[in-house]
Amino acid sequence: MNQTENSLVMGADLSLLKRNLDQGAAYRIDGSPIEPVSFLKQAGFEWARLRLFHSPSGHGAQCTDLLYTLALAKQLVESGYKFLLDIHYSDTWADPGKQHVPKAWKEMDFLTLEQEVYRYTLQVVAAFVSVGAEPDMVQIGNEITPGMLWNHGRVAQAHNVNTPHWQREESSNDKQAWNRFGKLLKAGIKGAHVATGKPTPIMMHIDRGGDIPTNQWFFDNLMEQGVEFDAIGESYYPFWHGMPEDLAETLEFLGKRYNKDLYLAEVAYPHKHHEMYENALSGDQEGWDRLTGKYPLSPDGQKRFMGDVIEIVKASSHGKGIFYWAPEWIPIPGTEDEADASPCWARALFDEQGNALPALDVFKQTRELESA
Predict the structure, then answer these.
(1) Most buried in the list 93, 168, 213, 353, measured by CB within 10 Å?
(2) Strands 147-148 vs 153-154: parallel, antiparallel or unpaired
């Protein structure tokens, strides 16, 4: 199944795949072992999104340093995947609740940090080019709704991922703060372009897939700073970001206002219950009932949700594609990851024994219909 020029981009964040396989994870379909790289490709995923941490601890999921990510990117590109590089500019997860400066950069003043963002981005993108895994798109920062590299590039207060979108902190229109943030983004963009020797597409990624006002606040301010980019990436998890109809309205707004390619840079839905998801809507029983009534936390509910989300993106005037987040994240017996009991397992596309789930069929069917 080959992607045509106008077909939906379907990708997955496969950042933990190498670690899982190295530690003995096994994936299956109908009880038979599968090789996940080729299996996912045949299932319709033709892009891989990989996150890059600066100097991670190496514990659990914090393994995605440059050497690790180079090896995984090389394997995936050689297997025919296109590649979105997600640079976190942090030693750990960068998200709306934290955008910590790497330890190695902690004592830098703003000017030095700006130069380092350029140098580092150039260096890491060039490293991927050198191993034959040139990124097809580069994401400058991860879920940068409140800015990046705090406090130098901060434009809003932190919020906890479990805080519903309608309860989050008020954001800032401080022009000096936005100017600093814009300079850091421009430094990263320049580094990526110099490394590839061409205007490699750039994605700006925030976490507000169903929130029009915050999208307008963020991207109006960003455009005012003259930050040049090609694609808007949204995280969309309905427990935090609204119902699918909220997503549809947000995508239509973004397409009309900014005329950019639109991606769900992260999307996922649980195939089983986990208290984290219920806690996210603990103050909105009606919302919980409405969401889980239509999309039960079950394999069939996960499949139905992804089918509807794919149709929403396809119907959007500027909808370009989706990246399913961490379909491969399953527990590995005898590892520290198993002891963490990660809620991410509940929204993988394989169950905790590594068996492929029905939602995978949605991606394959989407590609088959496009090829018919």
Answers:
(1) 168
(2) antiparallel
pLDDT per position as a tens digit, 334-355: 876 665 668 899 999 999 999 9
User: Is there a contact between 103 and 66 (Cβ–Cβ < 8 Å)?
Assistant: no
pLDDT band at 72 (very low <50, low <70, confident <90, very high): very high
> Looking at the 3D structure of the chain, how many domains does it have?
1
* Active-site residue (options: 46, 143, 252, 328): 143
- Give the number of other Cβ atoms within 10 Å of residue 29's Cβ: 15
How crowded is residue 169: how many other Cβ atoms within 10 Å of its Cβ?
A: 12
For residue 287, tell me if it sits in a domain. no
Amino acid code (one letter) for 167? Q
Phi, psi at residue 104, to the nearest 5°? -65, -15
Rounded to two decimals, what is the model's pTM? 0.95
Q: Which of 114, 252, 266, 328 is catalytic?
A: 266
* Model pLDDT for residues 3-24, shown as the tens digit of each residue: 556 789 999 999 999 999 999 9
Q: Is 107 a catalytic residue?
A: no
Rounded to the nearest 10 degrees, what angle do helices 244-258 and 212-224 cross at?
A: 20
Q: What is the pLDDT of residue 343?
A: 85
Radius of gyration for the alpha carbons in the chain, expressed in angstroms and rounded = 19
Whether the ω angle into residue 151 lies within 30 degrees of 0, i.e. cis, is yes
- Take residue 156 and report the two structure tokens written for it: 């809003």
Q: Say whether 266 is catalytic.
A: yes
Q: What residue numbers bound the domain in which 172 lies? A: 9-15+45-268+300-327
